[in-house]
Design a protein that fits this description.
The protein is mainly alpha-helical and 182 residues long. The protein contains five helices and two strands. 48% of the residues lie in helices and 3% in strands. The protein is globular.
């Protein structure tokens, strides 16, 4: 699997880099064969690790926006909405596919990464920006938002994931501005 991390060639633009990355994971690698790329709910049972107590459940990843109902308030699958920024959703799906292809991950750790993307989605939509305009200040605003809405220990985990997201976006040249959040 060492050939998977092929950085884009110099000179390619942001749109080309993302379309090639999406095509690579959606059409060639397909790390989650039961998942439909355009859906915001992916069935990943059998392709990620889960806790023993959840082994008999359908394991899903949710590429959805915050429900706006507060911490630990669940909504039905029908009420879940996809990310406001479809480009960010594609980046998140590529990132999750990349991570699980490199090494099989726990479903919960992948969902925490998606949660970090949710905070970025909230910030980008509130500032009327798209994912290709991401810069350090958006990551800083995302962690501030996380600190306001979730517990500090969980916000720490989100911050770690925001750093990983920044590195992924930087490595694959998915933004017009070349900056890394640290």
């Amino acid at each position: 699997m060492s050939n998977i991390h092929q950085l884009p060639k110099p000179g390619h633009n942001v749109e080309d880099n993302l379309s090639k990355l999406v095509s690579f994971y959606r059409d060639e690698i397909k790390p989650f064969p039961n998942a439909k790329w355009d859906n915001h709910e992916w069935l990943v049972k059998g392709f990620v690790d889960v806790a023993a107590r959840q082994a008999n459940k359908d394991t899903k990843l949710y590429f959805t926006r915050h429900n706006g109902k507060g911490s630990k308030v669940k909504v039905s699958n029908d009420d879940m909405q996809p990310f406001r920024c479809p480009i960010l959703s594609n980046i998140a799906k590529c990132h999750i596919s990349y991570e699980n292809t490199r090494k099989r991950k726990q479903c919960g750790s992948l969902q925490i990464k998606i949660n970090a993307y949710r905070f970025l989605d909230d910030i980008l939509s509130s500032q009327r920006k798209n994912a290709q305009q991401l810069v350090n200040v958006h990551f800083q605003d995302a962690i501030k938002l996380a600190l306001k809405s979730i517990q500090v220990t969980t916000a720490y985990r989100v911050d770690v994931q925001l750093k990983a997201i920044s590195k992924f976006i930087y490595d694959w040249k998915l933004t017009t501005a070349r900056s890394k959040y640290k």
